[in-house]
């Protein structure tokens, strides 16, 4: 639970400040990879952001503020295990966010509310200990900002200049405690199959000029669905490809399928598959939260429609590359609400390599020769997508 406090050594701002701002509302959404904190004020606040180590904390210094919202509204969750706030010396207040892991703010800005006052919006993402230590080392204290990212000492991936390298995030589905499906004959876990395919695909992509592949996981470790997306965004990925090999109750169904994101599923099978894949987090003790409408753009911002057009173009190229070479399911491009495809600014597909519930597919999924063939065709499809995008500058 957050604590309303007066920091030791200081008198409350309300004792001396003539007209402190009123923080009349607060909310927080997110998970272990990214979280958003929103605080409503009756006037426009000045603020600054700082980072403190041991433990990792984000400190928000504010102009004089009286906190008038219920403490439960800012209960710790997501990336933060403790949240405290209160007045400091004359004319100032502070919010301290204690993190469960190293974090950085990719956005901190004041926005005008439509109905009343302003809101301070803080978007936090996981980062490495090395990058957090660098933030602590390079920051400057005592500089109050008036509403944008100037206090962050960091910028978001979408603000960074592109270095000309085409980055592909290759995501091996499942891992760790989440084994995924298992083969009907050999009982081979899906997590082993997807990792083998991911490593081979990444290796082939890294041989291509101007292309760099990054693996979201390189071993048998668990990653939440949100962590996979954040890792891709932090790598400034141009594409995100998640590899899977599921099972179906109908053992006769076989072949590869390419999925893109949609709030409405293309069919019952796609809806059921997305529901199963989205349960991955719950298996490891995480829960998928539905953000309030006001903060929903932490997952899907205004670039989603354009990104979706590129995702569909990529899916079509993969299907075309596989036709006549790799067995495809009927209607091989389908869509559903896969959480792992929700990067708002990265064209993303989920590729079902085949179905472990089908004996013929299972044999192929375990075949070195077939894996080499499929990853070669997939690499060719990705390169055609890249070359078309670079040549035309529009939808590939």
From TrEMBL:
It catalyses: Hydrolyzes the link between N-acetylmuramoyl residues and L-amino acid residues in certain cell-wall glycopeptides. It is an enzyme of class 3 (hydrolase). This is N-acetylmuramoyl-L-alanine amidase. The keyword Hydrolase applies. It comes from Rhizobium helianthi. It holds the Pfam family AMIN. Its EC number is 3.5.1.28. The lineage of its organism: Bacteria, Pseudomonadati, Pseudomonadota, Alphaproteobacteria, Hyphomicrobiales. Keywords: Hydrolase. The keyword Hydrolase applies.
